[in-house]
Amino acid sequence: MTKLRERKNNRKAVLRSLYGAVERNRPEVNGAALRAELALPDEDLSAACAYLTDEGLISVDWTSHHTPATVSLTHEGIRLMEELEEEEGEQEDRVKPEEAQPDV
Question: What was the pLDDT predicted at 19?
Answer without folding.
Answer: 97
